[in-house]
Write a structure and sequence with these properties.
There is one protein chain. Strand 1 and strand 2 form a beta hairpin. The N and C termini lie far apart (60 Å). A two-stranded antiparallel ribbon has the order 1-2. It has one domain. The protein is an alpha+beta fold. It is 30% helix and 15% strand. It is elongated, with a radius of gyration of 21 Å. It contains three helices and two strands.
Length: 79
Amino acid sequence: MQNVVKVGKRYQVVIPKKVREQLGVNVADKLIVGVRNARIIMQPKPRRYSEYMQGLGKEVWREIEATEYVRKEREAWGK
């Protein structure tokens, strides 16, 4: 079920309790707000960007043996 929120006078919205609980959003937490495909996207700001970035792009390496790839790259440096 979708939640409906109202935009207040200062363009503020209240995040419904169930959504806050699902995301673990607490008072004073920061959110990243953006637009994607004509939709407003809000997500918790990562406490550490290294953890947020971990695993991004992993599908690129699915068919590649990392050790062999690095070995070939290092060989190319010497040429």
